[in-house]
Amino acid sequence: MVDKKDILERLNIRDYYNGQWPGFKPAGGDEIKNLCPFHEDTNPSFYVNIKKGTYFCQGCSERGDVFTLYQRLHNVDFQTAVADMAKMVGLSNGGGHKEHGKKKREQARAVMENKTASYDYYDENDQYVFTVMRFEEEGRDKTFRQWRYDFEKEDWIQNVQGVTLIPYRLAEVVRADTVYIVEGEKDAENLASIGLTATTAPQGAGKWKPEYNQYFKGKHVVVFPDNDEVGRKHADDVKKSLLPHVAGIRVVELPGLPPKGDASDFLAAGGTVDQLLQIVEQEPEERPPFSFATLDVEALRAGRYIETKPEKIRWTLTDSLPQGSLGFIISNGGVGKSWFLLQAAMSVATHLDCLDGIFEIGERGRAFCLFGEDVEPVVHARTKSVFDTYFMNPREGIYHDPTSRDTRIAELQDRLFLLPGSGKDLRLIREDGGNLAPTQTYLDLLALLKSIEDLKLVILDPVSRFYAGSENDNVQATYFCSLLERISSETGATVIISHHTNKAATNPNESSYNALFQGAIRGASGFTNAARWQLNLTTLKSKEVREAGGNPTRYFNYIAGKVVKKNVGKPETRFWLERTDGGVLRRFDSKLDEDGLDGEVKEQVIDRIAELENEGHRVTKISFAQDYSGEIGVSKRKLTTVIEELLAEGLLTVKPEKNERGRVTDYISSIKEDKFFQ
């Protein structure tokens, strides 16, 4: 009798599951996924581990192995399943008894009487190069040979020595924008018959040569693998070889193919060109990483920007954060970054502007949030609180498309994806032989995000759960940010990641508003340099809340924020938020404005210069701006402007004195006038 271990030793797990329930796609790592065969499923939730052979449905919790699946799908008992599957892998005659190993079949002889087909290869100029011959003989496996025809001798040369091999139908390939790659000439011909530009390598699976890549430069490529391990490995090899050279590439496994089936089988079963193109469009296109080696210098000439009208900028947050950018949100722990990010994501997914109208949503669509430090109950409670407090009670005058509770829930169900990440290894970068490289986690995350249609926003919270490098290492920080930019590039989504404020910006003896400047971000400058947009948040002291018009006894519920870096648009002013008892952030209308902030900066400048004078130190306008911009919390340029205003207002004065080298230098002196601060 056949033991199930004997079956498992011969069974190709991937081919088996595809044969029993066609339509599986890669799900990252050792897993593939499909719609579940055991319940009504619209979003693939049926996952198979191809190493273990087990399956689990995240929708209906069905689980089992290859034998369980066969029993369920064919409504048979275990013994029948074993007998049928033994026959499937060639171990028995159907009664559960082992068969003796079969002698390997011989290949058909490569003689003209056995020739059943021939495929001529022409170069890009339509000049004949060589021919692939197919030979078939009864009782033997078909075989292929590469021959070339000698037109002078009118006879075949049965080799291609000295001939440069090229892809099939090359003249069409070089003229096309999109090219389909299959495993054989017959498949290429069948795809060409329905109007697609198709090609193949002349020596079959596993024979793709790097020199073929030049013909696909800048093109969009679709690879249809044969439905077996050899075919899938060949498709993966082709993708890896072509990716640096093409505009984009997709590997598309066609549904419903028999074992070893191919594109021709799909068409023979009634598949149409429209169905084929629809299947292709459902597979995300992988784009190549940046490389100078593939750039066309002629395409970089400046005239393309001068002679054409620029595209209209698309926004995630209108006039603030461009769509497809990398943004950072910065604050101390516990200030409200995660609440802010969740509310922004929920706004993108619906028709309600962000934070009571502080930000207007530009691009509305799907949002994906990965809260790396939070457990399921926390994300659950936070989401429920935001929905009940904010989304069902919008502030008067804020953009709000009136709709029912059920409709609002349906919007969020369709457009918002939330993943609690506590306890998970979420590191996105690793060291590989002294070089930095993306982890498998990153590659799986990228593939997951690319599978989400109409994705507009990706939230990663916080940096520390994804980075795992030295925060002060600029090389690591810059590489990490390049991976986040790749997510934006390949999905079109904006990526916002949260990080913490540095200690210098949160001195308890200084103004809380000191945290609202670009340099307040913790760690390497590579983070803030890579960011196209940076928003800082800070809690306020009791005095500051009173000055802003809030309740000073509940100062811990008030937050100030400001976009401190943006690469498009005019500078933005501060805004204020008030945290409700449930944690939700609502806009707080402060009686302060940006002029009030200038007053605070001026007060700090005068006080600091007075302290330096009392200590016997002298400063110039330039030296003070260079040495104290970080402490005061504004840029050097801003600090220089403030000093010039104080000089003009008579609140500082210039003292010409000789410096250590005997040269007369304009030093700055303080003149304290209490009336300025009244």
Low-confidence regions:
93-97, 673-678
Helix content range of the residues, please?
A: 25-40%
Given the C-alpha coordinates, what overall shape results? elongated
Biggest β-sheet: strands ordered side by side in the sheet: 18-17-21-22-16-23-24-25-26
Compute the average pLDDT: 86
CATH evolutionary superfamily of the largest domain? P-loop containing nucleotide triphosphate hydrolases
Rg from alpha-carbon coordinates: 33 Å
CATH topology of the largest domain: Rossmann fold
Tell me the strand percentage band.
15-25%
The largest sheet is: 9 strands, mixed
| Count of distinct strands | 28
Tell me the CATH architecture of the largest domain.
Answer: 3-Layer(aba) Sandwich
Question: Termini, distance in Å?
Answer: 98 Å
CATH class of the largest domain: Alpha Beta
Q: What is the domain tally?
A: 4
Structural class: alpha/beta
- Count, helices: 21
